[in-house]
Design a protein that fits this description.
This protein is of the alpha/beta class. The protein has 21 helices and 29 strands. Among the domains are: 382-581, 3-Layer(aba) Sandwich (Rossmann fold), CATH 3.40.50.1700; 625-738, Immunoglobulin-like. The chain has a six-stranded mixed beta sheet, with helices on both faces. The structure holds alpha-D-glucopyranose. This is Periplasmic beta-glucosidase.
Length: 739
Amino acid sequence: MNKLCSLTLATALLCAACYSSEKTSTGIGTRVDSVLALMTLDEKIGQLTLFTSDIDVTGPTMRENYKEDIKAGRVGAIFNAYGAAYTRKLQEIAVKETRLHIPLLFGYDVVHGHRTIFPMPLGEAASWDLAAVEKSARVAADEASAEGLHWTFAPMCDIARDPRWGRITEGAGEDVYLGSKIAAARVKGIQGDGVGSLNSVMACVKHFAAYGAAQAGRDYHTTDMSDRVLRETYLPPYKAALDAGAATVMTSFNEIDGVPATGNKYLMTDILRKEWNFTGFVVTDYTSIMEMIPHGIAEDTASAAALALEAGVDMDMQAGFYNDALAALVKAGKLKEGLIDEAVRRILRKKFELGLFDDPYRYSSEQREKETLMSAANLEAARDVARKAIVLLKNDKQLLPLEKDVKKLAVIGPLADARREMIGSWSAAGDWHKASTLLEGVKQAVSAGTQVLYAKGCAIDNDSTQAIAQAVRTAQQADVVILAVGEGAWMTGEAASRASLNIPGVQQRLIEAIYKTGKPVVAVLLNGRPLTIPWLDANIPAIVEAWLPGTMAGQAIADVLFGDYNPSGRLPVTFPRSVGQIPLYYSMKNTGRPMDPNNKYTSKYLDERNDPLYPFGYGLSYTTFSYGPVQVDKQEMTQQDELIVTCTVTNTGARAGKETVQLYLHDVTGSVTRPVRELKGFKQIELAPGASQNVTFKLTAHDLSFYRRDMSFGTEPGKFDVYIGPNARDTQGTAFALR
Ligand code: GLC
């Protein structure tokens, strides 16, 4: 080591020694600058580069060239690497074999659990239970941090109103208010006591922005919308997540208003940093800097890299374009090194906040790993969230709950014993072999005297009908049939758009063959998105939406089917009757010709109804609830007032139950047209049979505010309707005015 280098090293070690002194923001800023001052241009650019580990059946592995990149200081972060021993090994390369010993960040897609897998996020959102949502994220972060991870690429906050888009499964559905509440709850769970606490990881708000508005529901497709729709519908959940303290943001693949998000300065700087004062760092999605070339907005590596950095993007995931092009751009005077310094500062700041300069190995504890992963408490939490996510869609003649001592019970269908499907997509380090199936859950739940029969009936999505006859024979022997149908894990999530929303393959043939046996049938849907099931709804007496429930799938579904848990889930997304209705969501505009069945020239179809099969917020219970009239404490309110809205809800059934009381608002006239209703509040109440509760909501001027004609955010005087009910359709209401 030459004299200069040893002097530099001494300086660095001296700085490293001072690292552990100051943890305040100013102190960290000083320490960041002290490291930055030592860095060469190449070392700075290395901090802006994120490469993937590989995940083989034996677990994460690192390509040899990436190890060389780490040693050469050309990598600042690695994703898809987890495990205390493995992350320690990689960290040792960075800390011991590089000139400045700057530790790596380890990130991973811990989206709905790390080892213990919770329901797909859309299903979890159906719980409307913010405490449960936060708990799920908390368990995930606890397990992830125990395996050496510092950072998760979650929560996904993309509003989605097109179920053809497979990634609708990763978010919280169609609604701005619910989506914002859930985004914040997920960040709180992920970051827990704050970035740097040992059982937390950094959150990453994705995919910024409006990725869920992909045209035709086709993944990665163009999004295009007015600034008003962007700000009113798509941005709020990202903002809620950032207001909850999210440390990082991920750019989305899509273009918006003609500019890909990864090169979109309006999004990444004007809105994110100038309007929202975001101080964390921005990472691209996978190779999305490179993708600006096929997008047609950059002609080569250098122009794509410059466009991203100048837009405000700090870290390049997997494209390697920053590594390849930034140094030459700076040396040629085409890019200011100060831009690179700003990006490096944001990233180093997070490494300091995580305590990695004090102890680079603090998250890589094999002891914590053993104590934390898939603990009994974590599995119980997963079961609890999974059953709270389940939505009872139909229950004619109270077929459900089933008796545990039924003599013969047939469990039929391609999802009945489909272990891998239960943990869905983006299932991180989840081991699907450890997931329970519906068949297993039923067997565990029924009495010793019950005979449980099983037949697969058909595959999830191929066209073989050979096994249907056997399934019919099995059903004919049973007293009641549980029919498990739906989608495969690979059919939801990224790059999984579908042009049809029917139950795939020949499952409908199986369903109708089982129906013809005349046996009582309970259909259990296991799927990652709304499906078009009008035939099922018209013919099958009981239907349960169980989503893709995670590690504890079998137990959670059985808890509901046999009544150990009274289903309380409510749909976070509209279920259309047919794919032709899409986009279909409750908070639509009225149009100048609202549908009138007696007038041809109004907004409707020749061949389909306008209304959904099941509306947003819909879900049944094993009991029933009634709603009294909606009352307001004043007919007129001012900007300064609070409006108190109340409604008495009564459990009119024979068993206790949880009801999600929802409040919707309709601004009758505005300087721009307003949705026919918008969710502005919800409360979950538990009522014993016969009990009533006066449910109260408070509305303020902020709740009545919107982006007015001139794009200013605020209220306008006029009439409002306020509704309360169990979903977006079956409501009661009253009116008031804002002066
Ligand atoms: C993927 C996804 C993104 C994920 C990232 C890293 O392509 O779009 O959600 O976090 O790459 O795996």
